[in-house]
Amino acid sequence: MGNWLWIGSSVLLCLQWIVIHLSGGHPPPHWMALSSGVAIFGAAFMLSWAAELAQKDIPQALAIALLALIAVLPEYAVDMYFAWQAGKDPKYTSFAMANMTGANRLLIGVGWASVVLTYFLKTGNKKIQLESSHISEIRYLGLATIYSFVIPD
Length: 153
Fold this sequence. Notes:
Helices cover about 80% and strands about 0% of the residues. The chain contains five helices and no strands. The chain has helices at about 1-25, 30-55, 60-90, 90-125, 135-150. The radius of gyration is 19 Å and the shape is globular.
């Protein structure tokens, strides 16, 4: 019964936004932002559960890669829209650049920090010990992080 409660809760978190959006109502912007954030939170839970279940049928690396792709597709869709519009109207060029660089900075800045914070809250350890086989991935992510600070806005 407990599992269905968690699944139902995450579905309801997403459905509340769909109901608000399809009802045609226009709540104040701060309520709409909160509603959207709660819906994204519920969708994130469902995506992570789906990735855990997928690992039973496909390799873990493939499940994580699919999860990452699904998670960033909406961001890429918005960026494709801005890029398409920039081809017609040059004022959209800065929107496309700001959208992609801002999203990457947010993922790197908040994403990395939240992993470390979650690990610290769970274990009390201030250091994360990674396997030496992950050194190349860490180096590429480190380079991407450094590059994100020099991307012109």
